[in-house]
């Protein structure tokens, strides 16, 4: 990508708002503020962690996670209820999100790809996860909202331990 094209993409204030929202999302997830994280989403927004790193057919393929609004809220309930193994001694996390590229811009949305490195610490064990992440940010009357988040873990086809946190 040429420097001029990259500069033009980042001159779009919607792209900068999208990146700010993605960084805000990362901070909320590290703070385990799942209710505030849920408020960032559009109604019907999807949170997906596919096993096949090349698929875009999330409904027709196997996924670790493929949540619509209802399933995302059920997942949050499990993580915050204290009644599931994932909620007990929840992992502490620190994530870095960088390498932003704009995949698509429409009248009401921006799709951004990025790299995420997440370090989780739970029960004296530290785990590092790396992923390519795609966020589609939709611009609504109430501001930018997450409409799609696809986390393509680099080790998605290997055994991935239950983490006790959201990616």
Sequence-ordered SSE layout with sheet pairings:
Layout: H1 3-11, H2 13-30, H3 34-39, E1 41-50, E2 63-67, H4 69-81, E3 92-105, E4 109-122, E5 125-140, E6 143-153
Compute the CA-based radius of gyration: 16 Å
Main CATH class:
Alpha Beta
Number of strands: 6
User: Helices and strands: which structural class?
Assistant: alpha+beta
Uncertain residue ranges: none
Which architecture does the CATH hierarchy give at level 2?
Roll
SS strand fraction: 35-45%
Question: What is the N-to-C order of secondary-structure elements (H for helix, E for strand)?
Answer: HHHEEHEEEE
Q: How many distinct folded domains?
A: 1
CA distance, first residue to last residue: 28 Å
The helix tally amounts to 4
Q: Percent of residues in helical segments?
A: 25-40%
What brief labels describe this structure?
167 residues; alpha+beta; Nuclear Transport Factor 2, Chain: A; six-stranded mixed beta sheet; 4 helices; oxidoreductase; Rng_hydr_dOase-bsu
Short note summarizing the structure:
The chain is an alpha+beta fold and 167 residues long.
Account of the 3D structure:
The chain has 167 residues and is an alpha+beta fold. The protein has helices spanning 3-11, 13-30, 34-39, 69-81; strands spanning 41-50, 63-67, 92-105, 109-122, 125-140, 143-153. It has one domain (3-153): Nuclear Transport Factor 2, Chain: A (Roll). A 6-stranded mixed sheet has the order 2-1-6-5-4-3. The model has no long low-confidence stretch (mean pLDDT 90).
